[in-house]
Amino acid sequence: MTQNGKTDVFVVGGGPAGLVAAMAARKKGFTVALADGAEPPIDKPCGEGLMPETQAALLELGITLDGSDGYQFRGIRFVQRSKQVAADFPEGKGTGLRRPLLHAMLVAKAEHSGVRLLWKTPVAAITSEGVQLKSGLVQTRWIVGADGGGSRVRRWSGLEATA
User: Do 62 and 131 lie in a common domain?
Assistant: First the structure.
């Protein structure tokens, strides 16, 4: 984000999806700001299971997982009552790790790549000009909503599913 409150891309949501989207935009040369009402590290009870393809995407952003960062697994299994399905990955292994560890890695890499991180900064609204924060309007060309299943960005944009 520039001194005059402008940025090319503004990401709403500082979880893994938001951080990776922000880094990908920076990699393309855009100025990027990211806001989240929380403060890192952001934890979720589910942890993270990173499939081989996810780890390859992280590697493209310069994020590598050490063998001691988590636990490797060779496939995935879904269980529901009396039914289940399981399969090994065709190539590579997945890695299971705690969410705060992944989040800390992503935050550090995003900071290093030049993403402007605005923690403890909830977004109040979006407009045709940009993103409204408590401190004022940030003008932006693009807004990325990475604020989860109950996305306010989706609602503000009129993209909610209809009945």
Answer: no
Do 108 and 130 have their domain in common?
yes
Integer distance in angstroms from the first to the last C-alpha of the chain?
Answer: 38
Residues 103 and 28 reside in one and the same domain: yes
Are both 114 and 149 inside the same structural domain?
yes
Check whether the bond before 90 is cis (ω within 30° of 0). Answer: no
Spatial contact of 104 and 111, defined as CB atoms under 8 Å apart? no
pTM reported for the whole predicted model: 0.87
* Same domain (yes/no): 106, 159: yes
Per-residue pLDDT of the chain (163 residues; tens, 9 = 90+): 655 689 999 999 999 999 999 999 999 999 999 999 999 988 877 768 899 999 999 998 889 888 788 899 999 999 999 999 999 999 999 999 888 999 999 999 999 999 999 999 999 999 999 999 999 999 999 999 999 988 999 999 988 876 5
CA distance linking residue 156 with residue 163, whole number of Å? 17
Helix 99-113 and helix 16-27, axial crossing angle in degrees, nearest 10: 20
